[in-house]
Amino acid sequence: AIVKYYNSKNGLVYYNTVLLRLLSKITKQEFTSLPVESSAVFKCEYFGARDVIARNYFIKTQGKMENKLACEIDTIDPLNIKMTNEPKPSKYNFSDEMVQGSKVLLNGIYGVPALRIHFDIFKRVGNDFENVKNGFTNKERNIVFSAGVTAFAFHNLLSPLQYLTDEEIDKYFWYADTDSLYMDKRALDKFPKSMFHKMNLGCWDIEHENITKFYAFNHKKYCLYDNGIVVRCGGVSKSLIKEWIKHSHNDFEFFVKCYFSDGTIVPSTRSIRNEYNTISIYNSSAKLEKGFPYFDSYILKNEKELEKIKAQIRDEIANQNSNELLYVETPYGSIGSNEIIPNEEIPENNNIRELIEEYNNFKRHNQKDLF
C-alpha cells in the first residue's frame, strides 16, 4: 500500500511527516535523518467545517438508533458519544432521505477538494443526450488539503498494525479498504480495547466475527464467508450480486469460480453530471479483472516501464468518446485514470459556488424537516 500511494516520480518519492509517523509506529524505528532534495512547511489549522461534520454525524448516528443520545444536535461531541435508556424524541425521527443525505455530506466534505479536474457532461439534444467530453471543469483544488486528507486517512487506516510484529502482520493481515481492515481474528487480542467504539467518530467497530473464507479479487471487489456469502463489488448493482449469491447455493468456491473470475463481463450503471447540474444515470457494462500484486520495493526500471504503459494507454483512449476508465491492471500493479491523464491548468470558474449553494439548500431543507 505504501509503495502504491507514495510511489516514486522521476526517481523521487514525495512523502510527509504523517507518513513518517506511521512508518515509525509500524516498524518501531525512529527516523533521525533522511535525504531530502526539497521540502515545504505548512501551518496546521483546525478544519473549518467541524460544526457541519458534528451536525450531520448526529443525524446519521441518531437516525439509526431507537434510544436517545445523551446530547442534542447542537451539543454533540462526535468523539465522545453516549447513549441513554430513553426513547428518542419525535423531532429526531429523521427520514431515510435525511440520514442518507447526511452520509453524502460527510463524505463530500472531505472528498470534494480531491475530485478530478474534468468530468464529462451530458447535454440534451431533443429527446437524446449528447456526451461532451470534459465538459464540466472543477475549481482548482487545495492541493495541501487533499494531500492532508489522504495522509491522515492512510495513517488512521494502518495505525492498528503498530500493535503487531512484522511476522504477525504477514500472518494475520488480509486486505484493507478505505476505512476497513480485514484480518485474522487471532489479531484481535493484540489491539487495545480503547480502539473500539460503535458510535464514536474515528473509532473502530467489529464486523464479521466469524469469517471462515476470504477472497480479495481487486480494488473494492472482495468476498467472504461469514455464515453465508458476503460480497463487496464496486460498480456492480446489489440486485445482480444477490442473484449471484442465490445461484451459488451458499457454495463459496463456486461463487468465486463463476462470478469473481478474470474477464467476466457484467452489466453496470454509470452516473454523470449533466448541463442542468443534476446526475444522469445510464446503463453500461464492466469487465472484472483480477488485480496484480504490487512490488514491495522501489525499482527505477519498473517505474520507467510503467510510464511507457501509461503513455500507451493515453494514446489508446485519446480518440475515444467514453470516459469509463477507472483502473488499469498492469504487471506493475493497478493504476488509476488520474495517473494516466496529465494535469492541466484550470481557468477560473464559479463551480465551487454552485456546490456551496447546493449545500445551503440542503441545510435549509434539513432544518425545515427538523423543526
Question: What features would you describe in this structure?
Answer:
With 371 residues, the chain is of the alpha+beta class. Among the domains are: 208-291, no CATH class; 297-340, no CATH class. The chain has helices spanning 2-5, 17-27, 50-64, 96-111, 143-158, 166-172, 238-248, 252-259, 300-317, 337-340, 351-370, and strands at residues 8-9, 12-13, 67-69, 83-87, 118-125, 128-137, 173-176, 181-183, 213-218, 221-225, 229-233, 265-273, 279-287, 327-330, 333-336. Strands 9-10-11 form a three-stranded antiparallel beta sheet, with no helix packed on it. The chain has a two-stranded antiparallel sheet with strand order 1-2. A hairpin with a 2-residue loop joins strand 5 and strand 6 (128-137). Helix 2 (17-27) packs parallel to helix 5, helix 3 runs antiparallel to helix 4 and helix 7 (238-248) crosses helix 8. The longest helix has 20 residues, at 351-370. The radius of gyration is 23 Å and the shape is globular. The termini are far apart. The model is unreliable at 321-325 and 343-350 (pLDDT under 50).
Describe the structure in brief:
With 371 residues, the protein is an alpha+beta fold. Helix content is 35%, strand content 21%. Strands 9-10-11 form a three-stranded antiparallel β-sheet, with no helix packed on it. It has a two-stranded antiparallel sheet with strand order 1-2.
